[in-house]
Design brief:
heterodimer, A: alpha+beta, Chorismate lyase, B: alpha+beta, Arc Repressor Mutant, subunit A, 2 domains, 6-stranded antiparallel β-sheet, 24% helix, elongated
């Protein structure tokens, strides 16, 4: 078996990644100057810059010309294991969550909605589109679909002040399990405008269905999250803090 | 009456598997080599190997050879967390494994010494079109004889189980990343196309065992995750 030596830029990248794992390094910290790092690693500026390019690509740093390179940490990281509502998650992370309802109306189930909620085509469905702001920043657009015949009173609730899950639970829903598909989309003009990002920017596209214990679909949700603000985690057990 | 040759040969080979002459994961000599050694016709060898495969002792891979089956563990947690839909008719490409020093980053993640050696391999999954690129970082001391166990034939989790390493939990991160030129080339992506970047560390009772990174073509695949409400909200 051949022994390989990582390339010089790779070594620099890995050392910086290791540095950034430390709790002492905070979001927005400025990395040492290029000159200082060239001395530290004994590499040329080209080698160093190659490492920065790779770190930027993965969203681990951002660079400001004539100012330096800055650490990106504390993205909105949601653990998808627990079926935790955004409301509860924000509370736990001490993030201020604000909601703006864009659309709230009754629609007829199209093919996709009918399939996901296991309803007949054309059944009345409550549709709710919400903008979600985390610490004052628009972070995702959520589109919820709920069977109106199962939750008849849902249309009259003010979802800017009330959590959807909580309202549904008060109507007797018992959330049990779910499945989610995560893929990549590109922002359309409307979304790009809302997020104040360029048209076509990549974003997470999440689609999920949540069921009760009898496997009856309660909510079909799809949401769009610009990727700069978001990553997801799945930890099968709570990590032991050492 | 004497037993037919292929049955006799099967018993001889089975014994060699059971006593460890051919250890789990190992590739058997070719049909011709076996035939020559025992002075039988290659057809006889093939019949014996087929029978061993039927009895679960071997896994025969067309155009590659016959491999000694690994012990089967029923609970393999490969599908926990984010799962990338797999192509069932997966091509078996030879995986080139290299050794490298863990270095500061992987040492921290795998909780080993930065000077410890790692196996590193990179492979592309997919049939006609590439679906994702997988990178594996595995400390050598976890599986001292990895190459004998043919990681391109057997799933990594079975190989780990064979080494008495049982994965108990996983920690995974998913983000969107720009693709480097080499990743774009391997995954046949256009300039500026992004990938889903999935990083996962799997743990046994003692700690981290293996670190993996997947660059997933986001146009074709959705990553799936199942979740459960297993905590009562305060």
């Amino acid at each position: 078996m051949k022994f390989v030596e990582p390339m010089a830029w790779q070594k620099v990248k890995e050392q910086l990644m290791a540095d950034m794992l430390s709790d002492d390094v905070k979001d927005g910290d400025r990395l040492d100057s290029e000159r200082k790092m060239m001395r530290r690693f004994g590499v040329t500026r080209d080698t160093l810059r190659r490492a920065f390019v790779e770190l930027r690509r993965e969203g681990l740093i951002y660079s400001v010309p004539a100012s330096g390179h800055f650490v990106v940490k504390n993205k909105n990281i949601r653990n998808l294991r627990d079926l935790q509502s955004l409301t509860d998650w924000a509370k736990e992370q001490r993030i201020v969550l604000e909601t703006e309802v864009l659309k709230q109306r009754v629609i007829e189930a199209d093919n996709e909605i009918a399939k996901r909620l296991r309803l007949d085509l054309g059944s009345p469905v409550f549709y709710l589109q919400r903008l979600r702001m985390l610490d004052g920043k628009l972070s995702l657009i959520e589109n919820s679909h709920i069977s109106l015949s199962r939750f008849p009173g849902i249309g009259s609730i003010d979802f800017e002040s009330k959590s959807l899950y909580q309202s549904m639970e008060e109507m007797g829903a018992l959330f049990s399990h779910g499945e989610e598909e995560i893929s990549v989309t590109h922002l359309n003009r409307e979304e790009a405008g809302l997020f104040d990002l360029p048209f076509g920017s990549p974003a997470f596209f999440l689609r999920s269905v949540v069921y009760d214990a009898d496997d009856i679909p309660l909510e079909y949700l799809y949401s769009v999250h610009p990727y700069k603000y978001q990553s997801f985690r799945y930890d099968s057990a709570e990590e032991n803090r050492e | 009456m004497n037993k037919p040759f292929y049955l006799q040969l099967k018993e001889v080979l089975q014994e060699m598997i059971e006593d460890g002459t051919f250890s789990p994961g190992k590739e058997l000599p070719s049909e011709h080599q076996i035939a020559e050694r025992y002075g039988v016709h290659p057809h006889t060898t093939r019949a014996a190997l087929k029978l061993l495969e039927k009895d679960g002792f071997l896994q025969i891979v067309p155009r590659r050879g016959a491999f000694v089956s690994l012990r089967n563990y029923s609970e393999i947690s490969e599908d926990q967390g984010f799962t990338i839909p797999k192509d069932k008719r997966k091509k078996r490409r030879r995986t080139k494994i290299v050794l490298r020093e863990a270095g500061p980053y992987y040492a921290k993640i795998l909780r080993i010494d930065p000077r410890d050696e790692l196996y590193y391999f990179k492979r592309i999954e997919g049939m006609k079109e590439p679906l994702y690129l997988e990178e594996v970082f595995l400390p050598v001391k976890k599986v001292p004889r990895l190459s004998e166990m043919n990681p391109d034939i057997f799933p990594l989790y079975e190989i780990l189980a064979q080494n008495d390493i049982l994965i108990e939990r996983t920690s995974q991160r998913l983000k969107i990343s720009d693709a480097s030129k080499s990743v774009r080339k391997k995954l046949k992506l256009l300039d500026g196309e992004v990938v889903l970047l999935l990083e996962r560390a799997d743990f046994d009772r003692e700690g981290p065992v293996v670190f993996m990174r997947y660059y997933v073509r986001s146009e074709d695949l959705a990553i799936e995750v199942k979740f459960k409400r297993n905590r009562i909200n305060k």
